[in-house]
Amino acid sequence: MALNLILMGLPGAGKGTQAQKIDDEYQVPHISTGDIFREAMANETEMGLAAKAYIDKGELVPDEVTNGIVRERLSQPDVLKNGFMLDGYPRNLDQAAALDQMLADSKRHLDAVINIDVDSAVLVDRLSARFICRVCGATYNRISNPPKVEGTCDVCGSHDFYQRDDDKPETVKNRLAVNIKMNTPLVDYYQGQGVLHTINGQRKIDDVFEDVSTVLQSVSES
What is the pTM of this model? Predict the structure, then answer.
């Protein structure tokens, strides 16, 4: 089943987990922008080299280079055969318009945008629950992955834990605010195109995936 998808959701919404389940069930290639940037630079493609020149100077990669890297990836045989699941792209309306043009040029269309929706207060709790063993570096989550014995590292037995600045609630709130500001125009854009499907992500993983599967079955039959 070849499906052309975009996966959206704020940090901590469970996007990565659902992407893996979609890949396993439907064999739709998961295309993370981070992964394809690294791949394009390692393979020294034209766009990969262009991106590296900006990154090496500590500059943001401009949209036209990002779009070029995505275009390269969407032209590869596995995508042409099985479709794609974009994760982390598009990040703004100009990139969304560029994607529309790429698909039109290759006589393809977007089947669905899956938006995993979780209340930001829940995400703050999820993301700020992470802590790390200072001795061996093992990572835990107070909600989803606590140590087997409270206060004791499963790996090395240490009782010395810390929390990274990035995982502290105030930092997490700021990061979410930036992502909400960036995502909202895209949600509106795809809502306007009639391809947006918002899924309640505040449930068990399998329940969320059941709703995702219902959407994918529906669009594959239409």
Answer: 0.87
Binding site listing = 12-17, 33, 38, 59-61, 88-91, 95, 130, 133, 136, 139-140, 153, 156, 164, 175, 203
Is residue 126 flagged as an active site residue? no
Contact 112, 197 (CB under 8 A): yes
Catalytic residue among 21, 91, 108, 142: 91
Catalytic residue check, 91 = yes
Q: In the 3-class helix/strand/coil scheme, how is 72-106 assigned residue by residue? A: HHHCCHHHHHHEEEEECCCCCHHHHHHHHHHHHHC
> In order of start, what are the domains of the chain with their CATH numbers?
3-119+195-221 (3.40.50.300)
Can you say which residues are annotated as belonging to the binding site for AMP? Answer: 33, 38, 59-61, 88-91, 95, 164, 175
pLDDT in tens, 15-40: 989 999 999 999 999 999 889 999 99
Binding site per annotation, positions for ATP: 12-17, 130, 139-140, 203
Annotation marks residue 130 as catalytic: yes
Contact 212, 13 (CB under 8 A): no
pLDDT tens sequence across 110-126: 999 999 999 999 999 99
